[in-house]
User: Fold these one by one.
Assistant:
Number 1:
Amino acid sequence: MAMPAPEGGIILGIETSCDETSTAVVRGGGEVLSLIISSQVDLHAGYGGVVPELASRAHLEALLPAVAETLKDAGVGYGDLDAVAVTRGPGLIGALLVGVTAAKAIAFALEIPLLAVNHLEAHIYANFLHFPRLEPPLVAFVVSGGHTLLVHMPAHRTYHVLGETMDDAAGEAYDKVARFLGLGYPGGPVIDRLSRKGDPEAVVFPRAMMHDGTYNFSLSGLKTAVINHVRKLRQRGEEIPVEDIAASFQAAVVDVQVEKITRAARETEVSRVVLAGGVAANRYLREKLGESLEGKGTELYFPPLELCADNAAMIASLGWRMLREGDISHLDVDATAVLPLA
Ligand code: KG4
Ligand code: ZN
């Protein structure tokens, strides 16, 4: 059903892969006419993590009103839409199904193309959305609650995965350490904030695989080291210096990331690095990586906070590119919990 996609095509984006119900209208891939992100954080906070069934039900309630609202905010009607883009995976299957089913219904009823988007790819495309002149080749570091991927991107929509996590994703490690310290969910932003007042050299935690010559990561040993350290202090009846521990944990995570990203940029000879995904919001990572790349002729890009976290604008933006390439989905496309980037 490939059809010539208009340059300024108006795309409705839908994102329901995890705990944010998000809808957006984006024109021409780069102009965000409206963006709604309705977070379920309060719903899941008491459980220390996302409860999949609760997430699906909350998406079901929130999604159609959010579609109506985002169209209204954008000042467009259903008839103005050129296509609908939706996160197909990876993510929580029940949550994804809500978005995919709604998008199919809209595409079918309006007789417009359906664009089934890879969530990880869309995180990378949040950078192209925000920086219209940005172009590959580049190295992308995709870090979220479920993924840690270091990727060489020689051209648009072409990915060579250089390395990934062997165990916990970066966001997952932040969330688990925060939960152990009683800091609530999601843990990344809290640890990021507390670290500002802590000493990153207070405790020397392990930097796993830092100089192993690969682009892979491992965080489960670090997580255990933090937990053991805190247990020891508790057993001795000592006060827990939460800020120092947060800063020291974060420094151990970021040191390895900066080392591997910097080496990847050098070895692939790219002059641009982009951060993508929820953990790309991390202030220390942005700072330390910026320092490491400075003077090496390599520019660092990261999306604004709103576009780092899960959002439908990045889905619509990548959808626009897919539409132009004729990469259009059939209405029988399935949501899928597991979906590789490449
Ligand atoms: O991309 P995202 O919103 O959802 C997934 O696709 O997983 O990423 C969520 C993850 C959570 O684990 C959260 O703790 C982490 O991103 N995160 C951060 C920060 N903000 C969010 N981690 C470190 N520092 C932050 N400032
Ligand atoms: Zn995400």
Number 2:
Amino acid sequence: MTTDQPHPQLLLIFGGPGAGKGTQASQLSQRLGVPHISSGDLLREHQRHDTQNVMSSGELLPDDLVTRVVLARLEQPDAARGAILDGFPRTVAQARALDTWLEQRSGTLRAAFYLDVPPDELVARIVGRQESSHRRDDNAAVAERRVDIFNREMPPILDHYAAHGQLHRIDGTQSIDQVQMQIVAGLGR
Ligand code: AMP
């Protein structure tokens, strides 16, 4: 790696399904001029039957597959200065792989934001967006499964970043603008 290459700076947006990660990450991407990388969007582009079936059931895909796809996207030239990650990492193994990737590129984690929304509201939001999202996993039964998986997988990830003093918790039940303002305020600190 040559010294004139920029060191990537990453921002992470965490939250349950329907917490508003995509909306916030996309607004932040415009504000900061770095790409919004959603693991869910990348995986939906895969269009493989086995992948689609797992995603439709609400279960997580294997760490090695997801990590490979996300890190390959981070290697694209438009992400050389950094990116906003939405939906990744979702497991401790993924967080470790991301740590290693950053270390190898002398990159930094600028901040991680957790959009906190109660489980019942997450399910209600997912069911509410079903008509516009056209996603097979946006229905009540799968939404509950996704929220359960999120509640199981997320605490150790949040602990991982909180231990490094990089985690900002934000009340995700506020308006889109209020959440965005708090993220921006958190970046300034
Ligand atoms: P999302 O668009 O973030 O709600 O993700 C939709 C689905 O894609 C999830 O329910 C998983 O099946 C899969 N997925 C997305 N990101 C990950 C990840 N980091 N690890 C494992 N599976 C993922």
Number 3:
Amino acid sequence: MRTPFIVGNWKMFTTPAEAADLAADVSRRLNGILGIEVALAVPYTSLAAVGPTLRGTGIELGAQDLHWEDQGPYTGAISHAMLEALGCRYVLVGHSERREHFGETDHQVNLKVRAAIRGGLRPILCAGEKEGDRNAGRTRAVLRRQIDRALEGIPAGSLGHVTVAYEPVWAVGTGRAASPGDAADAHQTIRRQLERIFSREASRSVRVLYGGSVTPDNVQGFSGEPEVDGVLVGGASLKASDFVRIVQGGWARRPIVG
Ligand code: PGA
């Protein structure tokens, strides 16, 4: 059984006070929704403020990145243990903005997935093709490569703790979402690759989310695709009413799929 999963990614927005207010607003509006899991990936500096706000609401706390070592001389970096201590359950890994602006490689993404699992966190692994790859017909090849490399050395037994977010780079923050059909096609590629590396059973335990310009107006297209287990929402997660409309307008209406 895969429980639908909606994740907000607040990126580099909100001070701790703003973040606590936004989290309180989201949880008030959602008011204990059933059958769907919701998580908020907030800036590091807001984790301590948002954690207590979310406690007991059923909404999970997430971070947007982590370092791959347990500790060490890595000025400015944050370890899995630091996130865990602040109550994080989820952590984004390999977001396209990290790959693009911070030069994160597939190898580093793999080390981060391993570190997250080692530390008891649940990684949300982001993968997606750039526009040039798509135009050149390389979408599937890129996805297969990213999945292969990111999950190298991960035991099949840990796969159930991994979520994959398909985020075509050209759709992130651009207002140009993928079509639900294209997303479903990419999700199938991802799931088949998981099946190839692990097993059919293990691959079916992994939730695959779509991300990239999801809004309250287009979410139903994605929730209508059985391959899409939820969404990763950036811009629209910064407004509580929009984010809650996405949660309520999508999977809340759909029975949980197995
Ligand atoms: P967007 O971002 O919804 O603003 O396109 C998605 C993401 O970065 O996860």
